[in-house]
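for the writeup, i need someone to sanity check this before i put it in the appendix. the sequnce is what the collaborator sent (i think, or maybe the updated version? ugh). structure was predicted straight from it, no edits. if anything looks off just tell me and ill rerun, i have time this weekend
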Amino acid sequence: MSRCETLADTPGLPKSAEGDPVFDEPWQAQAFAMTVRLHEQGVFSWAEWAEALSREVHRPGRAVDGADYFECWVTALSSLLSARGVASEAEQTALSDRWARAAEATPHGKPILLENAG
């Protein structure tokens, strides 16, 4: 079984009738793809990923219906990136803030470019 197939078998991952992952928003697919790629590059093992995601999914206050599943996903990925020294929480927050400023500075219908953050 390939690593991608293993990740696609993540418990709780929303799936189509055919068994393929489904995403309500583009950012969810991007988070999934980043996780797959980082796992393939050896940033974290499957066991580490499963543990981090499980910890977030079962954290008190999470949606009982799983509506916040991909928020859990992103939080777990962020935690792993910080723990592995890829990007600290402060670095991740700063980059997120730069993207938000770039989005605000970008005219509607134009690509969002990080250099627009000012």
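The first helix runs from residue 3 to 8. The radius of gyration is 16 Å.
thx in advance!!
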